[in-house]
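Handout for the seminar on molecular recognition.
Each group receives one record of this type.
Step one: identify the two inputs.
Step two: read the structure output and locate the region that could contact iron/sulfur cluster.
Step three: write two sentences on what you found, then compare them with the reference statements printed after the record.
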Amino acid sequence: MFITTKCDLHCKHCSNLIPAMDGQIHYEISDLTGWLDELLSKIDCLYRLKIHGGEVFLYPRLREWIEYVDRQSKIKSIRLTTNGTIIPADDVLQAIANSKIAVQISDYQLPNIKTQQLIEKLKKFGVHHIYLKDQIWKDMGEVSQRGCNRFEDCNMKRCTSLYEGKIYVCSRAAIMAKMGKIPDEGIPLTLPEKKLKTELKKLYSGKYSEACTYCDGDTQYAKEIVAGEQE
Ligand SMILES: C[S@@+](CC[C@H](N)C(=O)[O-])C[C@H]1O[C@@H](n2cnc3c(N)ncnc32)[C@H](O)[C@@H]1O
Ligand code: SF4
């Protein structure tokens, strides 16, 4: 789930295409809770919520958001992904430490990066964290019609994304649609429960996502690249 599209880095091959977006924003907390409440009212269980963006530690009302998601009993586990450049305020760290959230830290070997400082601080507060050491990135290519669907081969095929009140096959698909580069296939959360479930099942089967024909995905067809190289 995107809570922001603002970011302090400009990664050349960002899978979410964040640097290429116009008008990055923090979403209103009332919109975020509204979207998640709508989803949770129509499903039995959410195995894992991944909070991401953009850079999540830039989000101004992060402590409130953390406390809200942690209260949702249908959400069984929560991950928050950060680029490791920002040390959050102590009250945010305390809220994470008191929650079921695990922080996932990307490994970008950039000059002056604060990742080690962040890890020390997470340890001090007793925050459960995972350092994604030696990440390998893929160049997912230009947004253009390939004439074939890469869904089955893609390591992001379980990265179903909640973006602006709709569900997309992945986060890149959501942003490609937002940018008007592909047809908008987002499934509105406002659909009646039965219809929403039918559409989600279709989405998970992967056969119907046109977005996956506009991307090389995280697959063997995409070139391996250095993680986090800046524009
Ligand atoms: C798009 S980022 C957003 C969260 C945060 N800004 C960050 O960079 O960690 C989410 C995850 O996608 C990974 N990622 C971004 N671009 C990628 C690419 N081209 N190939 C593989 N993984 C990528 C990041 O390393 C991070 O773990
Ligand atoms: S990969 Fe993360 S840090 Fe890099 S531009 Fe995308 S959102 Fe920002």
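Reference statements: The mean pLDDT is 95. Residues 7, 9-11, 14, 16, 18-19, 53-55, 83 surround iron/sulfur cluster (ligand 2) (CB under 6 Å).
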